[in-house]
Amino acid sequence: MPDQVTERPVAGRPIDTRPVIELADVCRDFPSQPPVRALSHVSLRVGRGDYLAIVGPSGSGKSTLLNVLGLLDRPTSGHYRLDGTETTTLREKHRTRLRGQRIGFVFQSFHLLPHRSVVENVMLAEIYTGQPRAGRRGRALAALERVGLTHRVDFRPGRLSGGERQRAAIARALLGNPSLLLCDEPTGNLDSRNTEAVLGLFDELRAQGMTIVVITHEQEVSTRAGRRVRITDGTLLEE
Amino acid sequence: MDVRDLVGEAVAGMLARPVRSALTTLGTVLGITTLVVTLGVAATAGNQIVGRFDELVATAITVEVPETEHVPLVEWDAIDRLTRLRGVVSAAALAEGKDGANLPVRSNDLVDPARVTTQSLSVLAASTGLPEALRGRMVRGRFYDAGHVRRGDRVAVIGDQAARLLGVTRLDPAPAIFINGHAYTVIGVLGDLRRERNLGSAVIVPPTAGRRFGLRQVSRVLVNTDLGAAALITRQAPAALSPGNGDMLQVVAPPSPTRARDQAQEDVNALFLILGLVSLLVGAVGIANVTLVTVMERVAEIGLRRSLGAARRHIAAQFLLESTLIGLTGGVIGASVGVVAVVAVSAAKQWTPLLDARLAIAAPVAGALVGLLAGLYPAMRAARMEPADALR
């Protein structure tokens, strides 16, 4: 399949032609009265280096899909392969490890620890992944350089602008070269200028070969993605 | 996860809310301080009490003199030989024969069938050193002296309880009491006895006066010695009191002080230990409460850590270590404050501070243990959180 080997290689990792995400007939039911089906027979394939936007109104199942994609939740039925690994049958500890090593999360509310410096927040990403302590600060600084935040290394998040906070969070997500950058409303708390800065950063990362999945309800964000799918009442439709 | 990372995260978590951590630590500080102070002061005070108790008991000797038909085994003046021995602080001879026990004593000669004016009191004859030998003092008046004895004066000294029974409240009118119908002038009231307290209800007369009541022979000799001299005096007293017949005297030596000390200290320690443990329990509840609140406040952080690859055990370990560190810090501060307090109390009371070194080491460990136990439930709650819920 030579057409799949088109993306740039990520530093230190051999070219991998497998799709990053393969969802096959995934359902997610919540046991309430009556039971709620948040995802209904969702199938999705995201190739390496894709930039995908998942759009949909509130309550459509976006967050459930993000949780399933991020290995934060298990589907009730169906299959989910991440980087070629079937995750639905994995034990909890293996899912946790896979999540730490392969997925970088970017949240709407940044989730930066307020009492830690920017670089310490970024370094946090390596604590649970088994990376050696030696050189951790250097790798965190490199990630911060990637997002253009080297001038704020020792600042506390409280002293950063919204855009800078999100860039710090992206740097944290990038540390360890994940296969997938999973972003949940990444510009939801940003003004238009900072939104543009973050989207520009996504463009750059995409150009570097990073696979990005953005869940958003903002038109501007979804149009910047190369590919867009819409979720409505738990059902996914390609646009 | 590297242990250094775990410790680093726990310390950072603790320092992230310094005021709260300090206030939480305060609970353990108070608990451990109370524990150390109570145990330390108990040991110190106990030692002091026991020391005094020992001093009282360890220096008191009683020589029992059997009654003989003709020549008494101990003469009244034998006390002078005894007091000359090195180590004897005070001594007195007593005659408490069967005849002298519980004689009718009344304070006036009136016979009133409507009132009980006659008391049945113990009457005994004693040598002049009795107040010192009883470790008491003259509450009122004076004790009779060698002159009274030599002249055979009909004087009496009564115990403070006997004085109350007989209604003797003042000595300036030279009140008389009637012992078995014989009038005696009360010249003193003896009280605050630390030895032979039952003599507080006795009537004491000079040996020369006691003959009238059959109190001729010395029946007991009370001896007080210097601290540490009791054993020596126990051996020497019989010969000094009754040369040639010393072996017929029975010397009651002080009991072993070690056993008494251990028992008293155990009693004191058990009481204070319970107090300290209750304080510590209060500290533990404080830590548990605050840690639980902290967990609830840090739900988003827990979610973030889970998204970064933290397993449940990592989350549990971090919160458990945080509460343990808070307990340990409280334990170290509490132990330090406690030791200083024990020394300060001892200095103020002019006591010798007595603190088990193991306590100073065990206190921080106890604090850490309290923190660990207090953090168990909150840590479990944190670890059980589903990452998707925590991030919501």
UniProtKB/TrEMBL annotation, chain A:
**GO function terms (MF aspect):** ATP binding; ATP hydrolysis activity; transmembrane transporter activity
Q: Which residues form the signal peptide?
A: none
Q: Which Gene3D superfamilies match?
A: P-loop containing nucleotide triphosphate hydrolases
Is ATP-binding one of the keywords? yes
All copies of domain ABC transporter, residue ranges:
21-239
GO annotation, cellular component aspect: membrane protein complex; plasma membrane
**Keyword annotations for this protein?**
ATP-binding, Nucleotide-binding, Transport
Is Transport found in the keyword set? yes
PANTHER family linked: ABC TRANSPORTER ABCH.1, IMPORT ATP-BINDING PROTEIN
**Listed name of the protein:** ABC transporter ATP-binding protein
Look up and give the organism this protein is from. Nonomuraea montanisoli
From TrEMBL, chain B:
One MF term in GO for this entry? transmembrane transporter activity
Under the heading PANTHER family, the entry gives:
ABC TRANSPORTER PERMEASE YTRF, MEMBRANE COMPONENT OF TRANSPORTER-RELATED
Bilayer disposition of the protein? Multi-pass membrane protein
Single GO cellular component term? plasma membrane
Similarity section? Belongs to the ABC-4 integral membrane protein family.
Please report the stretch or stretches of sequence annotated as the ABC3 transporter permease C-terminal domain.
274-387
- The organism of origin for this protein: Nonomuraea montanisoli
Superkingdom as given in the UniProt entry: Bacteria
Where is this chain primarily localised?
membrane
Q: What is this protein called?
A: ABC transporter permease
Write out the transmembrane intervals.
Answer: 270-295, 316-345, 357-377
Enumerate the InterPro entries for this protein. ABC3_permease_C (IPR003838), MacB_PCD (IPR025857), Macrolide_Exporter_MacB (IPR050250)
Every copy of the MacB-like periplasmic core domain together lies at 21-229
Q: Which Pfam families match?
A: FtsX, MacB_PCD
Localization: Cell membrane
Keywords linked to the UniProt accession: Cell membrane, Membrane, Transmembrane, Transmembrane helix
